[in-house]
Amino acid sequence: MDPALTEPVDPRLLPLVECSRAFYADRAAGRGPGSPEELHAARAGLPAPTASQPPAVDLVACVGDRGVPLRIHTPVDRPATGVLLEIHGGGFYLGSAAGSDIRNRRLADALGVAIASVDYRLAPEHPWPAAPDDCETAALWLAENASDRFGATKLAIVGFSAGATLATTTLLRLRDRGIHAVDAAVLEFGTYDLSAQTAAGRLIADEYFLEAYGGDAPDRTDPDLSPIYADLGGLPPILMVVGDADVLLEDNLAMAARLSAAGVDLDLRVYPASPHGFTAHPTPMARAALDDIEAWLGGHLERRRHRKPRDWTRGSAGGARGGS
Question: Which pLDDT tens digit goes with each residue over 252-310?
């Protein structure tokens, strides 16, 4: 077995564990809406996303007869050296591209890259395959237009939770088309078995989002719906990020094992004392994970970084992401 799968927790993170445990001690574990009624109530109660400065630019990416809205962030004071397709989280039925504006604005300036966040259609109004169709459309548009529009040819995909699942599906669809335009991908605690048939998948078998997103799919082991069942060969380098207290940990470890067995250049990082969605929380552990993501992306997009390492035991920083 790949050593990266047997000892994925970096010892430098251990001093951050106490702070993370203290932060989560009084926070009940999150759970998504359990019915259409709860979903509608959750949507109604969501605050308006915080706008970034400068604000995102909206456009519609069209490929053939498909069109999908994108929110674009570009570096403020320099040309872009790469392009990221960002896919937000929210259980396939919540969230929006605008919810990622603050995080994407920061990432655009930190890495010097353009970021296109896709506003894919949400379940249950638009069940599978609507969301992966939209993400594929965005990726195809970027593969064709990134150089002319942004002056950059390096392309990466970043997905958060449900967005990580959709990022994986997008990579597989591009590969199956013979398109190898994506140079790297970051998958933050995705869910890879939506059939609830594997041991890991059965841990979330009663979650409503499976029904909402799967819709009338006749077989939820379809790799386009549950990528754990896919042939995973031929994918670009992937960074997987997950917390050791995440209900999806076993699912992520299983997916990591399959990616590694398929010969994918995989970097798996498990963060201690961290639940699902932890990179959206204001903790030193989250900040460390986000910096790890930025450093990894910077290396794969060939941007040289000269930054003094931070001492994460001295306190937390903000930078929460939208969606979960």
Answer: 999 999 999 999 999 999 999 999 999 999 999 999 999 999 999 999 987 433 333 33
**What is the structure's pLDDT at 5?**
55
User: How wide is the angle at C-alpha 111 spanned by C-alphas 97 and 314, nearest 5°?
Assistant: 95
Structure tokens at 73: 């962030």
CATH number of 104's domain: 3.40.50.1820
Query: Can you tell me the distance from the alpha carbon of 252 to that of 238, in angstroms, rounded to the nearest whole number?
Result: 13
Asked whether the whole model's pTM tops 0.85, one would answer yes
User: What are the distances in angstroms from CA 179 to CA 63, 274, 286, 291?
Assistant: 15, 35, 33, 29
Residue closest to 139 by CA, chosen among 98, 175, 99, 193: 175
Question: Kindly report the CA angle at 67 between 61 and 70, in degrees rounded to 5?
Answer: 45
* SS3 at position 195: coil
Range(s) of the domain holding residue 58:
3-26+48-302
The residue whose two tokens read 């395959």 is: 129
Residue 169 is encoded by which pair of tokens? 């599906």
Number of domains comprising the chain? 1
Q: Which residue has the tokens 């941007």?
A: 303
Averaged over 84-96, what is the pLDDT? 97
| Strands of 78-209, DSSP E | 83-87, 114-118, 155-160, 184-188
